[in-house]
Amino acid sequence: MILKTTIMRTFTIFLGILLLFFNNVFAQKKLNDSTKVEKLDAVIVTAQYAPQSEKNAVYKVKILSSKTINKKAANNLRELLQQELDLDLSQKSVFGSSLELQGISKENIKILIDGVPVIGRLNGVIDLNQINLSAIERVEIIEGPVSVFYGTDAMGGIINLISKKNQKETVAGEISSYYESINAANYNGNFGYKYGKNMLRINGGYYHFNGLATNDSPRNLNWEERGQYFGGLMFSKDLDNLTLRFNSNLSHEKLASLGEPSRRSGKITDTDYFTRRIDNSLNLQGEVLKNKFIDITASYLDYQRYHDDYNVNATTQEKTLSTTDIKANNIVKYSYSGLKAQLGKSDNTNKINYAFGTDYNKESTEGGRILNRKQFIQTLALFGSLNYKLSNNFEIQPSSRYTWNSTYGSLFSPAINTKLRIDNQNQLRFSYARGFRAPSLKELFLDFHISAGPFTYIISGNESLDVEKSHSFNLNYTFEKSLNNSGFISIEPSFFYNDISNLIALSEMVDSKRHYMNIEKFKSLGGKIDITYKPYEALSLKAGISITGRYNKFNETYNTQKYLYSPELTTNINYEIKKRNLNISIYNKFSGKREGFFIDSTDAIIKTTRNSFDNLSSTVSKSFLNETLHVSLGVKNALNVKDVETLNEIGQAHSRNLELWGRSFFLKTTFNL
């Protein structure tokens, strides 16, 4: 109750300050309307008929621009999303960092790069630490299901990373270096050459983090040492109104996990995990037949992960390669071949616009932990969407997707989006979608055996699994008003409700065996309000507050509440002095107390509480030498939160959330060639 009161008091004070400024501005003499400068809307591509401004889109799309990436000094997707409202991140040792959106997590959040899915989930998680941002221009986020356009895994929302594609100069490039006081370093290079209607861009880099311990263990680092190499090539050619673009990217990561002495034998085992990704795509997009837009993408993705175990001499610390768990037995390989084609018509002056297309992909996996060592799934989908303007201010957009899957058969997924433009300052968006998620290859065909003492434990897939299905409702209101030449205020409240059935989860252990089943359901509901206030060009103030309720499945058999609620509060202050090429940014996210339950070995229900915490960061950036050299320095996690304890009812530590590793300072330099 005290925590909730504190949050509301803080937010009320902030809102009061905004309204006071708002009132003062309008009490002043208005400037000549002819000199007003409208706020420019970014062009978005995610789930659109054709590239268009965010203001005109039926879907509400959140944009994290290259400026935001630079201000946060974010090296990877985890660092970029840490302080975003309604995005809850967690770190799980060798599985990496994952996120939750609208209370939904893991397989139900789809991550894409230029519309092509990122593959290689471990325990349902795409490790956000492995997604480097050196070649990324912006990130577009849609909350809620987008299954019509992107198919399975998109029930909770999508995160689409848009790579850098354009340049004005014939020759352009940059070299950047980054050092963080927790012994992490990142080096990147980008080079582009434009000749005639052709352009070639190459990039490469190296990231290394030496590992960190935030616990009392003398040897085991709960933040493992991580080394990454990454590189890419992009070639594009303009064909009148079309652009042909080829992308190829390679990344390799080594994660070193140090073991502790076994309680029984005293033996020590260290493990090195290796992950390799090769992603290729060929894209053709642009205008055809005057006002039509085509977007065709063919892609091939290759992913593999394996590990090497080492026996460690407790006295000398010398390592010898283990012969009991070799690469040939533990390697897991995934590949993805896809072809997606879409034709859209998007003209804001017409009453009717549309998009339709087809989407084919084949996913394959092989390895010693897969049934019969090799399996695949094929999916073919047809989708269509119609946007009809009932009036100049109201439009409705029904959509549907028909999907055939080689394992679970056919599925029809409908959706409807509406947008009401009340006036130039007010917009209302509402959406309903019937989302779905097909069982993954692991959930269908896993065949994992592990020996522990006299027992052999078996975890297996289930070829009879049904798809997960969801009903999702989203309501978003936007108020935006220009204040003067360069200022504006924006207020955006939104609400959501998700109901997922046939949720796939592992069964209880019976006779040392577990398997995947459609045994659970999940619901989430909540709302948030985002406020942006820019009184003049140099200063920007942002604040947001949200509350998310997650369905508590134990309420069906125990006397507990049906929904467990947790709040979040974000603030951002950005001040820019253009004459001195100086920028100061402050970001903070308060994550409120989060409760949960688990069943102990005696079948008793135990309440857990993840304590509340703040994540405060600040960056000071300045350009030199006519903006040739850009320098940023700052502090991350200024309040020195190391890991967030989860406590049971009587106050004993149960587990830890390894989201933060303590205070660190950084320096980043970028030299433009």
Description:
The chain has a 22-stranded antiparallel β-barrel. Strands 3-9-10-7-8 form a five-stranded mixed sheet. A four-stranded antiparallel sheet has the order 33-34-37-38, with no helix packed on it. The chain contains six helices and 39 strands. It has 673 residues and is mainly β. 34% of the residues are buried. Helices cover 7% and strands 59% of the residues.
Q: Characteristics of this structure?
A:
673 residues; mainly beta; 7% helix; 6 helices; 22-stranded antiparallel barrel
The radius of gyration over CA amounts to 26 Å
Q: Biggest sheet, open or closed, and with what strands and sense?
A: 22 strands, antiparallel, barrel
Q: What's the overall geometry?
A: globular
Terminus-to-terminus distance: 55 Å
| Beta-strand share of residues | over 45%
Proportion of helical residues:
under 10%
Counting helices, strands and paired strands, the structural category is mainly beta
Question: Which parts are unreliable, with pLDDT below 50 for 5 consecutive residues or more?
Answer: 1-38, 649-655
Let me know the average pLDDT: 87
- If helices are DSSP runs of H or I spanning 4 or more residues, what is the number of helices? 6
SS elements, strand count: 39
Give a short overview.
This protein has 673 residues and is mainly β.
Note the topology.
Blueprint: H1 2-27, E1 43-44, E2 52-53, E3 62-64, H2 66-71, H3 77-81, E4 87-92, E5 96-101, E6 104-105, E7 109-113, E8 116-117, E9 136-143, H4 147-150, E10 157-163, E11 171-180, E12 184-195, E13 198-209, E14 225-239, E15 242-257, E16 268-288, E17 292-312, E18 319-321, H5 327-330, E19 332-345, E20 352-367, E21 374-389, E22 394-405, E23 409-421, E24 426-437, H6 441-445, E25 447-452, E26 455-460, E27 468-482, E28 488-506, E29 513-536, E30 539-551, E31 563-577, E32 582-591, E33 594-599, E34 605-610, E35 613-624, E36 629-636, E37 644-648, E38 653-657, E39 664-672
Parallel strand pairs: 7-10, 26-29
Antiparallel strand pairs: 1-2, 3-9, 4-5, 5-6, 7-8, 9-10, 11-12, 11-39, 12-13, 13-14, 14-15, 15-16, 16-17, 17-18, 17-19, 19-20, 20-21, 21-22, 22-23, 23-24, 24-27, 25-26, 27-28, 28-29, 29-30, 30-31, 31-32, 32-35, 33-34, 34-37, 35-36, 36-39, 37-38
